[in-house]
Design brief:
3-stranded antiparallel β-sheet; single chain; 5 strands; two-stranded antiparallel sheet; mainly alpha; binds iron/sulfur cluster
Amino acid sequence: MNELFDGPLPPEPLATCSACAKLPKPGEPPPADAYHPDTKCCTYLPMLHNFLVGALLADPDPAFATGRATVEARIDSGEGMTPLGLYATQEYLSRYDAGARFGKDLSLRCPHYLHDEGGRCGVWRHRESTCSTWFCFYDRGEAGKEFWRDGVAPMLRAAELSLAAHCAHALGADEINFGRWEGQPRELYRAAAELVVELTWAEVAALAGSEVQKLARVSRERLAALRR
Ligand code: SF4
Ligand code: SF4
C-alpha cells in the first residue's frame, strides 16, 4: 500500500476494536444496531488465501500461537480446503445467506476470533482484505466508505484471488487439485507465501491484470477525495 498510495493512509479512529464501538454501553439499553459482545463484527468466515495461510504458518511470533492453532484446525478438518486456500463452506454460506444477523449470530462467529483472549483476531497480521478494510464507522463519513469499502476492498479482493490462482498454477496445482502437493496442503501454502512475499505492488498489479489496475486508479482518486 505504501507503494500504491502516496503517504500514509488516514486512520479510522472511530472503529475502536479493543473497546468495540458497536457494543452496548454499560448501564444503557442496547441500541437495535448493537453487536453481540461475544462476536463484535466477526460473524464472518474469511477467505484465507494460500499465501496468507502459508505466511501465518511460518510466522514465528508467539502472539499468533493460538490463532495458528485455529488455522491448523481448519486444515485438519479439510472443510473448504482447496489449493487456493481455506474458503467458506457451502453450509456456512447457506446459513449466512439465510438471514443471519450480522454482528449478533453466535453460530456464525469466525473460528479465528479469540473469545478467551478478549475477542482479538487470531490471524490479524495475515487477515484477508474484507477484514483488513472493514470499519464500522468512518471518520469522514461517505468519503471514507467510498475509499475503503468501494475502492480498496474490491481492489484487494481481486488482487488476492489473482495471486492465489497464480501461486497454485506456478506450483503445479490448480483450483481443485493439489497435484504433487496432495496430502501436503501446509507445504503448498508455505510455498505460496514464498512466491508472494517479495512482490512489489507493481508486480502484483501486473499479475492481477486490468480490473485490479482500474480499481487501483479508482482507489487513488477516492483517497485524494478523502484527504480533501
Ligand atoms: S470494526 Fe468491528 S471490532 Fe472494531 S469497533 Fe467496529 S464493530 Fe467493533
Ligand atoms: S479473521 Fe479476524 S478480523 Fe476477520 S472475521 Fe475472523 S477474527 Fe474477525
